[in-house]
Amino acid sequence: MDKQHTVIENGWxxxxxxxxxxTGAGETKVSSSDIDAGGRLLVPxxxxxxxHLGIVGNALGFEADDCNEETDPVTPNLLAxxxxxxxxxxxxxxxxxxxxxxxxxxxxxxxxxxxxxxLKTNGRRIEKMMIKNAGxxxxxxxxxxxxxxxxxxxxxxxxxxxxxxREHLVKAKKYLDDLNDYEKDSENNDLPEFDAKxxxxxxxxxxxxxxxxxCHRADDILTAVRISKQYGLDTVLIHATEAHxxxxxxxEDGACAVIGPVIGDRSKPELAGQDIKTAGVLxxxxxxxxxxxxxxxxxIQYLALNAALAVKGGLDRDEALxxxxxxxxxxxxxxxxxxxxxxxxxxxxxLYSSDPLDVMSSPDFVMINGETVxxxxxxx
Length: 380
Fold this sequence. Notes:
single chain, 380 residues, alpha/beta, eight-stranded mixed β-sheet, four-stranded antiparallel β-sheet, 11 helices, 14 strands, 28% helix
């Protein structure tokens, strides 16, 4: 796909120093370093817009689970990057499935969980794998209630969860105002005393990162929208399980959503309205959607299967591909680097011999930052 996200027949892509340097159609100069795709379909590397990859370790239980700091319901100062293990085997499974970028997030036990990391799935040093700190995690509904009810602490109601979020945002806005006043006039204004939680929220209030709201029920989704409007947050709705019930309202608000996992059982009360039609209904109403696995809830390698099920539920097939490529990149604020095949973007690409959304498909070739991480091509 080019920058208009359309199909190029008999196309070519040039790559240098890990970046895409050009695209086009027709014959090109052939050198010994060129790769003949043999008529295969070239698509951008897949992006999973909501996971806990590496922050919940593979099959290791509590010791490898660093997803939820359930000792404090408000922890915006925590960085997912500090809890991600890049040596987790599931990173390899992601690469094998053509998933080249993920957002790995703190969990949803806390009203405010911490800072979300957008990263590539290849590498050993997190700082080398990172694209950026891409968002702050918020959670509404059942999960914070359950976590803190078990501890007999606040919050145990939806009111208290929203109240904690509002209280923190008010304090953070005052902190930012004080910082701005000091910067404008340091002689007549004091620098506010450093507060790690408030300081971590400054990029959110400045719209340098987005608010990712975990919300399943329709009322919780609308609470996320309401809070976001009140405090001027650039918001992404995560899961949005019952969003099909309010698709027209979300379209009016210009909302965007990361839907998923699409496959799975209705394992808790707020999933009662789960339906594979949600992504399709949202798209038809004009709401931009991405699709996620919520790994390890659904293993990362089944991202394309989740997209295929959304197609079965009514989502346009090409839109399903966008939901795990360019839409995901745009929703997550990383489309300057990934999500489409165009000049200047990272060379994250994959080749298929068949439909990428076919359950039997697997990429023959995967490249991340111009480095080949999977090669099943046969060279003559």
